[in-house]
Fold these 3 entries.
Entry 1:
Amino acid sequence: PSPARAAQPVSCTLPPAVATMPPKKKADQQEEAPAAKKTAAAASAIAANASKITTSAKAIAAGKADMIERTPTPRKPRAESGLVLVHWNVGGLNGLLNGKNADERKALLSALVEAEKPDVLAISEHKLQQKNVAAAEAALLGLLPGYTAHWAVCTAKNGYSGVVCLVRSGVEVSSVSLDAVESINEGRTVSIEFPDCHAVAAYVPNAGQDLKRLDYRIDTWEPAMRSYLQTLQASGKPVVLFGDLNVAHLDADIWNVTAKHVPKSAGCTPRERAAFGALLASGPFVDCFRQLWPDASGAFSYWSTRSGNQLLNRGLRLDYAVASASLAAPGAALSLHDCAYLAEYAPNGDHAPSLVALARTAAA
């Protein structure tokens, strides 16, 4: 990781779509629905309230904190033709839609979709049972109109795991497969076939507390995923795997990589990190972010909410886009265009949305 630097004043800025707007005329204010007022106010408040009294906040106040510097990774303009895939682990969709901070979180999600206009928005760890899907879908599509939802639901355990992919209207889809990797019925993947590629949204099993699922993760899940991606790639179309892959591959992906407990922590064990390398070699595939920014440091996708570590950028990179190496080849008809972590939509930490964009080259 890059050397730490002295802590700077922390601020959390909302995206332009949810920033505080200039005061409206009285007539306009009277016409605005109370619910819309409440949502806008809550969205603005979330940034101001992000610095809760946490370990990191106390350290900052005492002048005893070091912030991890993030290498600038400027975005590219959206390609004229292509495919934009966004993933966000929300840690429970019901909480996002109906929980204590629902207004703020819904405003941030709406702003994300408005700004990025993803062709596919994958939401992982939705934790819904099948009986709750219809109501959640109605609420979600009410918030994000113009999309069709495809749900992978965990039936092995209630209130656990799950992935939903929202596909934008007008995007041509050839087929959709649910939970196609490993037969554990945990709603881990949604696979979408497009005319020129496959996209697999995934929420990879966590090794868990005390690493209880580490053997399963390494000995069963990882070989199954590699085999599945190889089969898709053998169809003649390139593949993109994107989502919460629950691993920090490189030293630069772990803020405190030298800490003694790190090799014994889920997602950071030598076996998991080596398995990610084996996945890349099996395609061959590329880590899209590292393909574009091989030397970037401090580029994380997850921060502990308990410690308030987002305030000091003390995080892990657990969310990825992994793509067929052919997508990174010069002159490819479909090619890697952009990859980013959108931390501005997660001012209170936990997972940030991640984005990968592919560009299509016009036929000669």
Entry 2:
Amino acid sequence: LRLLPRTSCDMAPQRLTVVLVGQTGNGKSATGNSLLGVDAFQAKRSLASVTERCQVGEAMLDACDAPMHPSAEGGGTRTASEAATLLRVIDTPGTCDSGALLEDNLKHISEFLSSSAASAASSSGATDLEGRDVHGPGYGPGSSGEGLHALVLVLSAAARFTQEEAVAMERLVARLGEGVMRHSLAVFTRGGELTREGADVDELMSSAPPSLRQLLARMGGIGGGGGGEDGAPVLIENFPSDGATRTQSAAVPLLTAVRRLVARRVAELGGGPDAHLDADPDAAAAAVASAVYTPAKLVAAAAAAAAHPST
């Protein structure tokens, strides 16, 4: 089962919500910018988190997952009806910050994802690549509060995975609910450095500590892992130096992994591996909408965490 972006304006666009989590410095904000095709989030190398609170960015993507620019004629606003995918990205504070308590950040992430704060932020910040308001049914104001399709753990191929990262992720999962792991995948940034060294993600994973292997094994349900064809983490490059665009080197491979993850959830819901959703993009859009980790589950997990402050 594959879920592809629609290719006709007569078909309903798919809507995807992706949440980026991980340690400060691993490239969450840069990854979000690559997905959106615009520098919506502040991204720079720093020992302290640049992102102090959850932030929302939205974009309309074409059938090749490239960001759609406003119409060249008259500078008119492109509408959601023209898009293949309506993408919503949530950037979060670092989970191992030096300038904020871990529990404060985890609590904020949990509360943001499970409350109306996400909807309010989205309603006030839904813009296209030129900063214009995005208009269209099912996009922008009111498009929040639908849960998440993918919780993406952002790791760095240039940094070792620490026990602190493992503990932080476990504590975040405790606040979001264990079920969120079936909607999770991992991505390694700075993949260009690995490629220049003649290595690949398999070689990188051969040196992964047990804590990371165990975490990845719980992600994504079937096959576990990162979202790649064989369950391995996805390797991306947010700052390509080989002439490629960041859409090609980061957004496309990551969104491909997200759709593969969503397809697994659709199959679990009864779509089955033989469902012909490729030939029926309208059905695919409906299937994608049904394959979220729901707001109700997020709210229930947040309530349970509030009832047990040690969580």
Entry 3:
Amino acid sequence: QFSSRVATEDVDRIRKRKLSSSSSSQEVDVTVYLPKVKPHNKKLNGICLHVHGGGWIWGDSQYQVAHRCLEMTESMNVAVVSVEYSLASTICNDNGQIFDPVNEVVTALNWIENTGADELNTKPVYVGSGESSGAQLLLLSMLKRRDRTDGMPSLTSTWKCLNLVYGFYDLSGTPSMREDGNDSSPICGNELLCMADLYYEKILQEGNHDEQCNKKIDRQHPSISPMYANLSNLPPALISVGTADPLLDDSLFLANRYSICGNDVEMVLYEGGEHGIGHFGLQEDDEMGRRAREYTLQFMKRYLEEHDTC
């Protein structure tokens, strides 16, 4: 099922599939998006790993974001792999289901590096893009990939940039979120805090704990709040947020830490921009929303073109 914003002739460019990784027994569903037409035998420019938003409780890789993923494929001439990660609102631990969205994104990431370029006929050049909770999951997956010690190439040699849009990087709640209360739309600070509560409780139900001190992780633990992680040796990032977004401080603080840790980072603020700018809500397709979305596409295209090795 697709949004009405997906044209009938574009449905054939959208493919659901299940991925597994040689480095993990975990499987994950994804949706793959391809450009309309490409010259015979000419490879696509690369692969964009996409992680949708939704506060860890709603959203999917198809109905919610299909029109946006198709836009990315056309603009950048890439394959887009959007991850259908598990949601806190649908996983029931009593039935043996596992809530592990970060490692599901990692599984997709590993597949992209190991076989994705060959299977999708792309150049071995990769970028990542995530919104809101999806930006948090994307960043956490990149940290896991960076820390691998099994002979894989360095993270920054294969992943050229990250597009982090109005992300949620501190589950304890930054000042702008707590001060917002019920004021903002389409999502207010209190609603975002409730989503963080549900995500955190699900993580605890899975038995996650700090291995160093063998106690339950708190909300600022680096495994769930990337704001407090070691952010060194990560790809260049574009961090975007609106000034009316309750998650404003998350992006401002992360951009500062990202830079201090030695990475290239570009911070873009949209005056009056709400949570969802360029992606949902009243500002999805207004002038500022279109401008914000186009800038993210140009940012990723720039890094794909700079690393055109094939």
